[in-house]
Design a protein that fits this description.
single chain; alpha/beta; FAD/NAD(P)-binding domain; 5-stranded parallel sheet; 19 strands; elongated; binds flavin-adenine dinucleotide
Amino acid sequence: MFQQVLILGAGPAGISTAVEAIKKGFSTDEILILEKFDEVAYMISSKYPDEKAVVANYKNKFADRISGLRISDMSKQEFMAFMKGIVSEYQLNIKYHQTVERISKLKNGQLSVQTSNDVYLTNSLFIAIGTMSAPRTLSVSIPSTVSEKIFYDIQRIDNKIEKILVVGGGDSAAEYAKILIDRGHRVSLSYRGKAFDRMLSTNNEATLELIKEKKLTFFSGTNIEKIEDHEGKPFVTFKELPQGEEFDGIVTALGNERPANYLSSIGIEMGHEGDDIYSASSLEGVFFVGDIASVKGGGTINIAFNSGVKAMVEACTSYLDCHFESEKK
Ligand SMILES: Cc1cc2nc3c(=O)[nH]c(=O)nc-3n(C[C@H](O)[C@H](O)[C@H](O)COP(=O)(O)OP(=O)(O)OC[C@H]3O[C@@H](n4cnc5c(N)ncnc54)[C@H](O)[C@@H]3O)c2cc1C
């Protein structure tokens, strides 16, 4: 099956790339999105806490108005409705439950993209799979007997996990701590810094208030030295504190990494780190879009929307027969 525009991942970056391809004159059946899971923006749907506010300038990162797609501050539910609305408005073709197993270049210059049950051919492939599948982990070893008590988001944390340690000092750590406290958990926060200078001011203020009100215990300037199993619970020793503490669960909010192992396993090596959007890969005609191409510290939804526009402009100059006159569509 030949596709003019083939996109991996139906998150903000993949959806923006598809919309931009339509604006550049491609019909909906010339564009295909392969999504690993069963929902548009699955990572946001599954990893953001339901109570979370989706913030436009997350991590204080402001995105210029480049894409026609843009969010303002809204709830997670409003964001998911917004994404579903775009899919329906542009009649985007998304194939769910697709796992790519191999990407290779054919002798005729086309890219071959092999999934478990199909092979797709294309001249331009946009990889927009994000980084949320590769959360940064704690740098200490974790006994296998307590590994189930370590979480990378808070969606699966239930009431039985009463006393929780959140590790991190950015916006996610602040949001997790606040939401868990509101849900009735006993929460502590370990951050290697002393001040929350990476957070949005709203999160900074809310966190300081929780500490002041003694609703949040703050282990300031701490690094975890080891985690042991104490009767099935993680017991944490901090380098800087004289005694350790037992928790029912630990949530890490340390950001994400590029899924480099997965990419390498399917035949893709990433090139240089782009300063925000696309970066060259080992295969010509392959573009990285969204978080996967973002600089250290991760991107935002509006930056991901913009990246689809930038990548499509780049692809149109070398790989695609785009029709700029239809751009106002
Ligand atoms: C906890 C947390 C809170 C955040 N809060 C905000 C916020 O309030 N505001 C904001 O602007 N940004 C926020 N961000 C950042 C924002 O979520 C990302 O910048 C944005 O989602 C990046 O979009 P993307 O399309 O590049 O990647 P993603 O949103 O991760 O989308 C990737 C898509 O690809 C799919 N996929 C994954 N692997 C594969 C594969 N192998 N094959 C096919 N498909 C695959 C996924 O299921 C998903 O649908 C937050 C991030 C985190 C982790």
